[in-house]
Amino acid sequence: MKAKKWLLGLMMSILIVGVLGACGNGDDKKLVMLTSADYPPYESMDTNTNEIVGFDVDIAKYITKELGYELEIKDMDFNSLITAMNAGKGDFIMAGMTPDEDRKKNADFSDIYFTAKHLIVTKKDSGIETTEDLKDKTVGVQTGSIQEGVAETVAETIDIKIETRNRIPEIIQEMLVGRFDAAIIEDTVAAGHFKNNPELTGFEVKEVSEAGSAIAFEKGSDLTVEFNRVLNEMKDNGELDKLVVKWFGGEE
Ligand code: ARG
């Protein structure tokens, strides 16, 4: 009788330790990606499934699967991403984010996985055809984006009024109702808005460097090397090209 109780106790403890261990493991094997899902085709909310989809999401799924992690995605304003990651709210950021010197102070970045150009987007009848035409105009950019910096560079030589909004669709809306004369948006993202709003057009801002996208990690994170390894595999084995075609190529 006594012996049996003792055995039962032992079995219970083994069970408890086992369950705890499994939980710990499960936690370790999940990564949280932070993004700003206002940026198709990189990331946007699929209103049918209520899931975030896009180029970045597909890359993240491929890499995390390859490394044996489960993936969870959290949506927030672009401007909050790095702070949120460093506050422990996520493990990495994919949001079409361009590494620049300021950001590199607060995050480590993977290699670049895609490069886009900056466009000045405006209504076809605005009469704005060159950067110089922006003189005395109101220009919208996403808060905390590289494009905000591009606008500031333009403002050094041409008098423009810069307006910021947290989400790209808000900027498009302000332009459509005539509160903004123009906006600075990446070409690949602008393309989708041209399709939905035929009254919009755009031209390249040649004065500034292109916007490369990279994955951001907490400073010193081991994930940077792991992700880079798979990212470069994707470049070599054609997976990345496939995703480029899926999300950016073959319009219509
Ligand atoms: N590439 C630009 C940047 O890093 C814009 C990215 C905006 N991304 C987004 N998901 N809204 O500033």
TrEMBL record:
<dbReference type="Pfam" id="PF00497">
    <property type="entry name" value="SBP_bac_3"/>
</dbReference>
<keyword id="KW-0732">Signal</keyword>
<keyword id="KW-0449">Lipoprotein</keyword>
<keyword id="KW-0564">Palmitate</keyword>
<protein>
    <submittedName>
        <fullName>Transporter substrate-binding domain-containing protein</fullName>
    </submittedName>
</protein>
<dbReference type="InterPro" id="IPR001638">
    <property type="entry name" value="Solute-binding_3/MltF_N"/>
</dbReference>
<feature type="domain" description="Solute-binding protein family 3/N-terminal">
    <location>
        <begin position="30"/>
        <end position="251"/>
    </location>
</feature>
